[in-house]
């Protein structure tokens, strides 16, 4: 019968019909890539991309101050929840998440990095970078988790280590 072929990870996983929401999510975050064993930066990128995908899947979930999911979120609750689903722990507040991540220059930001918004009192908001100068975030009371352009230059970026 010739050479044996092993099925790829994708063929083992099967297929799931796409809904409009999942199609929009895929368009917003792009495809994920499997990281080779021992590739620390690649593993961190894959974890972050998967966390981004999870955040995007929560589109439309209501904002609630102090909520950490799975159905309602505040800004840091969404980032904490998304990374927890991929096995990474983040502290609870935006400021503590800022203190916990590896700070990176904006020109090196990648999908799945955290975007921190700064004011006079320190970090007041956080979202997950989705590419194209946009973030997934839970903005404020009365709103829902959504994709939105970064509206200020008073931001910094942090990478969650793999």
Automatic annotation (TrEMBL):
Which segments constitute the NlpC/P60 domain? 45-162
A Gene Ontology biological process in which this protein takes part is: proteolysis
Q: Which InterPro entries match?
A: NLP_P60_dom (IPR000064), Papain-like_cys_pep_sf (IPR038765), PG_Endopeptidase_C40 (IPR051794)
Query: Gene3D superfamilies in the record, alphabetically?
Result: endopeptidase domain like (from Nostoc punctiforme)
Query: What Pfam families does the entry give?
Result: NLPC_P60 (PF00877)
Source domain of life: Bacteria
Q: Write the record's keywords in alphabetical order, separated by commas.
A: Hydrolase, Protease, Thiol protease
* PANTHER family linked: NLP_P60 DOMAIN-CONTAINING PROTEIN-RELATED, PEPTIDOGLYCAN DL-ENDOPEPTIDASE CWLO
Family label = Belongs to the peptidase C40 family.
Q: What is this protein called?
A: C40 family peptidase
Source organism: Streptomyces triculaminicus
* Higher taxonomy: Bacteria, Bacillati, Actinomycetota, Actinomycetes, Kitasatosporales
């Amino acid at each position: 019968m010739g050479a044996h072929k092993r099925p790829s990870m994708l063929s083992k996983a099967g297929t799931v019909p796409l809904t409009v929401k999942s199609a929009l999510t895929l368009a917003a975050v792009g495809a994920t890539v499997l990281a080779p064993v021992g590739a620390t930066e690649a593993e961190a990128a894959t974890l972050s991309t998967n966390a981004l995908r999870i955040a995007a899947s929560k589109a439309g979930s209501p904002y609630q101050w102090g909520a950490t999911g799975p159905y309602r979120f505040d800004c840091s609750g969404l980032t904490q929840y998304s990374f927890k689903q991929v096995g990474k722990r983040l502290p609870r507040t935006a400021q503590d998440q800022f203190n916990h991540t590896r700070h990176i220059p904006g020109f090196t930001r990648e999908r799945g990095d955290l975007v921190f918004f700064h004011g006079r009192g320190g970090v007041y908001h956080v979202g997950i970078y989705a590419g194209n100068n946009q973030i997934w975030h839970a903005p404020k009371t009365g709103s829902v988790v959504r994709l939105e352009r970064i509206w200020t230059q008073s931001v910094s970026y942090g990478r969650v280590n793999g």
